[in-house]
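Human: Cast an eye over this sequence-structure pair and say how the chain folds.
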Amino acid sequence: MEPTIPPPHPNPHPPTRFNPSPGSCDAHCHVFGPADRFPFAPDRSYTPPDSGVDDLLRLQTTLGLERAVIVQASCHGTDNRAMLDALNVGGGRFAGVAMIDDSHPIEQLQEMHEAGVRGIRFNFVRHLGSSPDLDHLWRLVRRIEPLGWHLDLHFDAVDLPTYGDLFGELPVPFIVDHMARVRAADGIRQEPFGYLVDLLGRNELAWVKISGAERITSDRARSYDDVVPFARSLVEAAPDRVLWGTDWPHPNVRHMPDDGDLVDVLADFAPDEETRHRILVDNPQRLYTFA
């Protein structure tokens, strides 16, 4: 089947505003295929072009990054083979976040842990299908808790406050992806963003990724200037529980970003080198325990 979404930027530029520290991590990216080795899920909501681990390694070299967290993409469903193959190729420089269901035995989860998997993902966003059944979520939480894994949660901002009970009861760390996909055009005083900042302040298990600038910016602001106040507020709220990532190869975006621009804007999100080091090196190392 022909791709239904575009490929990533063909020639991203290296960072121009700072040099990432040794051990810097892209804490949110994906691998797609190659489909002839790792077929996409039959019930997928989009078909991406191949963007495999070799392409990711080239991007890492360009951006000056040494580590990455490969998050299982919904187009592969619960077949984690492409992600696990990438972890193997990385030889310890990559960690993984899987998508699993009740069919995955604990022995398989233990094998995944040895390969570098450190969490599981749930999609709550409407364009990727319906929200997960919470009974199912809780069954999987109980299975991953002994492994020390976390949850990676992908929300539409408007829905975030409706899951307050879930956040308060979770016994494992959980990450809110892409700044909860808030709309920068709605302003920093919007209720969903205020809820996210408050959640970080009162729940020490809550983490956030200041990724997805290309998703939440207004159509007129390709410099991502309108995203900066949101990212800074989140960093201020919980500097030890903030991660950053490119979201390469950028599925389902309104415009395809240059990944070099996404590294550069981190200089505005966290202007001082010490804070950037926390976000790029210390925080991901603590959560993902890279080899």
In short: The two ends are 38 Å apart (CA to CA). The mean pLDDT is 95. The CA atoms of residues 5 and 252 lie 7 Å apart.
